[in-house]
Design brief:
By secondary structure, the chain is mainly α. It has one domain. The protein is built from 3 helices and 2 strands, in the order αβαβα. It is globular, with a radius of gyration of 13 Å. The two termini are about 20 Å apart.
Length: about 80
Amino acid sequence: MLDSILCEKMGVPAIAIVTDAFVETGKLMAAKWGVAEFRFLAVPHPVANLSDAELERRADGVIGDMVKLLKEGQQG
């Protein structure tokens, strides 16, 4: 999350993806770093115990949102 915030502050497009268990933490981190409206994506928690195929399905489920966020940027 922080890497994405710092990249965006330097003008480098970035996406943060967290699991839904960390959405509130992500919002608090963004606010602490002065970008309270920082947009990021969330996937269902947990991911650590997923097989490669399950993880790939999760990634496929957010790829459209990833592309949209990269195209729109944080100001979108």
